[in-house]
Amino acid sequence: MASVSFFSCSVLQYKNYHNRTRKFDIHKPIYPSKSTSDIVTAKATAVVQPFARRSANYAPTLWTFDHIQSLSSEYTGEDYKARADTLKDTVRMMLVSKVGDPLSSLELLDDLQRLGISYHFQEEIRNLLERIYCSYYKPHDQWDNLDLNLKALGFRLLRQHGFQVPQGTKL
Fold first, then answer.
1. For residue 46, what are the β-bridge partners?
2. Left (φ > 0), alpha (ψ -120 to 50) or beta: where does 19 sit?
């Protein structure tokens, strides 16, 4: 019976040859604490030139600090501040008055978050979500009767605001 060999020599011969010819010269570089060019190896000391780092060569900005400070807005007067306060009060009333319809109140909350103005109404949003959580989420039978849009929107908003809404519940 003939043996098939894929190597020109046996594995044992290869190991013996490799052990005899292998030298234990470790060439791991030891990097100094400086970021400069001296790299010390176990065999010899070599001087390496520092790398030239690539740069994106962006043009300097045209917007200096003085230029930004000189910009003014026509919406800084007392009239505009009073109008903004009235609009905030209107939105607060909308958040408080949306008691009966959870879908419209959650959509309003989602719109406020997407507009980036929800930080003005944090207390009202928290109260609204607590009302929705207590009246629609805790009794699971009511969640089973709600439409999928309300379930998904309620799940996301309640989770974002730290309410413990389990993932596996039949929302």
1. 39
2. alpha
Amino acid identity of 170?
Answer: K
Q: What are phi and psi of 45, to 5 degrees?
A: -100, 130
Segment-wise mean pLDDT, segments of 10 residues, the chain, 171 residues: 54 61 56 50 58 77 84 85 95 85 90 95 93 80 76 90 74 44
Max Cα–Cα distance, the chain, nearest Å: 104
Tokens of 157: 């908003």
What does the alpha-carbon distance between residue 45 and residue 48 come to, in Å, rounded to a whole number? 10
Could you give the CA distance from residue 154 to residue 132 in angstroms, rounded to a whole number?
A: 8
Task: Note the pTM of the prediction, 2 decimals.
Answer: 0.56
